[in-house]
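Exercise: predict the fold of this chain.
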Amino acid sequence: MASRLSRTVAVAAAGAGLVLALAGSAQASGGSYSARLADGCGSASGTYHWYATSVYNGKQAYKTDWDFALKDLCSTNGYAVSLYTKYSKWNGSSWTNDGSYHKIASSGAGTNVADVRIFLCEVGRPSTCVGIS
């Protein structure tokens, strides 16, 4: 293993979500991120951090934490805003990823995850989702 461990954060374009492409480092990485729905009806801003933990089947796993403030700017349109995520999860024997959006609280934590992408969406309308970047 190289004596220098590098880490790279790839922030995908709107719609692709916050993507983690990291290698090594026991220190926290992350920072402040935000998003606004294309129709202007919602926004999110806050922090997201990740910490390298173990390597399973050759893939780095992470512990994550996030804390976002969400604003519903069109409360009369009948659609609340929420955060969603897509990710890979180590289940104890293999990596799984169902490719679906999973609703998450505006603040929380995750363990044994990789390939994490966070989105702001109107609830029940995946076509509105934009990536947090």
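Check your answer against the key: The two ends are 31 Å apart (CA to CA).
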